[in-house]
Design a protein that fits this description.
Layout (H helix, E strand, L loop, with lengths): L1 H51 L23 H9 L10 H11 L3 H12 L7 H6 L22 H15 L8 H8 L5 H14 L1
Length: 206
């Protein structure tokens, strides 16, 4: 009777061991499956991230055009606008024409306009020679303007161009570049240079 009890006890112990081993194996299998699933999720997530990664755009700096200064810290357009503020009568709106010719011929734009304002009188009322014969600088020559010695031009633009050519070729090219040196050859009136300088200051101030 005692042997039967011992045998039965051993049998129960073996069953418990088998059950325990089964539980351990089941746990190992579950853990292994979780690890594998976790790895698969990581791989899938990485692949998706690669496919869906945002496109990095390079920063493009805006193109800023360099400011082209031509005279007195001004661009051509700014110079033309400034000259236009001192132009009257037939000269009105010719700022860009004066600015272009003065820069291209290397003639001071303030001084050239000041000479024209004095010679034409356009601040108060343009002279007959300037309105009828398009002569803005008091130039003499042929063809004549009426019965006088002043030269006639077919258009105002032609008269403006000739004025700048006269200053560039007959004065500046000989080193006569300031008002007082130009005065000696340009005009006989004793106060001519002072009058031109006065106009220059008015142009600068506007």
């Amino acid at each position: 009777m005692k042997d039967k009890k011992i045998s039965r006890s051993k049998k129960n112990t073996n069953l418990l061991l088998i059950a325990f081993q089964f539980i351990i194996i089941s746990c190992v299998i579950l853990l292994t499956q979780k690890v594998l699933m976790s790895s698969e999720v990581t791989i899938i997530t990485t692949e998706v991230a690669k496919k869906q990664s945002p496109i990095i755009l390079e920063r493009v700096e805006p193109i800023v055009e360099e400011r082209q200064v031509v005279y007195d810290n001004m661009t051509m357009e700014e110079l033309a606008y400034k000259l236009n503020r001192s132009m009257y009568g037939i000269l009105e709106g010719k700022g860009m024409t004066f600015a272009n010719y003065s820069i291209n011929y290397g003639v001071d734009p303030y001084m050239s306009l000041a000479i024209v304002l004095l010679e034409t009188g356009c601040k108060w009322g343009c002279s007959y020679v300037s309105t009828t014969c398009n002569n803005i600088g008091g130039q003499v020559g042929y063809p004549k303007c009426g019965n006088g010695n002043y030269r006639a031009f077919a258009t105002l633009d032609e008269g403006i161009k000739s004025f700048f050519e006269n200053l560039a070729y007959n004065y500046y090219s000989y080193g006569l570049t300031d008002v007082y040196s130009i005065h000696k050859k340009y005009a006989q009136a004793p106060n001519w240079a002072d009058a031109v300088n006065k106009y220059i200051e008015e142009i600068k101030a506007k």
